[in-house]
Specification:
36% helix; 279 residues; 12 strands; 12-stranded mixed β-sheet
Length: 279
């Protein structure tokens, strides 16, 4: 196995994108994270773009890390040993890995056995894809683009979303505020409105074929009224109307309610993802 560390995004994409495009839904996250990097400059010192090729020169594994985040991984379990040996030999320290359950489980086992390290599953997600919105009854109200006047409410919702999705301590109020301001500026954030706004959702990581739906949140006072289902259905249709072939989203593995809602809209289960901390 040959491990290549890329300092430029263009180099990584020319090498790894044909491999990643073979599983376009499962690899939408890793490509989306990579595309956030500046293509004109070397990547930051605390970022990493890795590809691993087999003896015939065929790419079988790819990994992307942005500053302060887990390393997103994709590929064959046969490349795990080479991947972790490269990290160790080059003193690359990572918080953990995120990817399909099968691959991250294999990384965790090798980390524990070869390096006497410890691992902990921190997040478990299911990944879905939608190619057509199914007919569903919509709740009272309508979808609209979020605007600057909504910012204060949405900043609080974003902070509450972080706690709901990731638990206490996984994000600061400042991070939530910055995320909302960024999404408002990029016009990525939408709300469901009755006589007031009652739910929010966003699109993210637009790619060649697909786009992610994320930041889906309804405050407790407005839940169980179908607002989130209505908003996600409307926003997903908006994305398809804009020319994307599919939408993708992540859900909490253990939240049966949200998984049921998204299947009703037309989202199909594609696989299980997880984040694993490595120490």
């Amino acid at each position: 196995m040959h491990v290549q560390a890329h300092r430029r995004l263009a180099s990584f994409l020319s090498t790894a994108k044909p491999f990643l495009d073979q599983e376009e839904v499962l690899n939408h996250l890793i490509l989306g994270i990579a595309n956030r990097l500046n293509p004109e400059n070397d990547i930051p010192e605390d970022s990493h773009l890795l590809s691993i090729s087999d003896g015939r020169g065929k790419v079988v594994f790819a990994a992307v890390q942005s500053p302060g985040r887990e390393m997103i991984v994709s590929g064959a379990k046969s490349a795990v040993e080479s991947f972790l040996d490269f990290l160790k030999d080059n003193a690359i320290k990572i918080k953990g890995v995120e990817g399909t359950k099968a691959l991250t489980d294999a990384i965790a086992r090798h980390w524990e056995n070869a390096f006497s390290g410890t691992t902990k599953v921190s997040l478990e997600h299911l990944i879905y894809a939608l190619y057509e919105v199914l007919p569903v009854s919509l709740s009272e109200g309508k979808m609209r683009l979020a605007v600057a006047e909504d910012r204060k409410i949405l900043e609080q919702w974003a902070y509450d979303f972080q706690i709901d999705a990731f638990g206490e301590g996984r994000g600061s109020r400042e991070e939530a505020n910055n995320r909302i301001r960024d999404k408002l500026e990029k016009q990525e954030l939408f709300v469901w409105e009755t006589n007031q706004i009652v739910s929010m959702a966003s699109f993210a990581r637009p790619g060649d074929q697909g786009v992610a739906i994320n930041y889906v949140f309804t405050p407790k006072a407005f839940r169980k009224k179908g607002y989130a289902r209505s908003l996600v259905a409307a926003l997903s249709q908006e994305m398809l109307d804009r020319g994307f072939r599919f939408c993708t989203l992540f859900t909490d593995t253990h939240n049966s309610t949200t998984n049921k809602i998204y299947r009703e809209i037309g989202y199909e289960l594609m696989g299980a993802f997880q984040s694993v901390a490595l120490k």
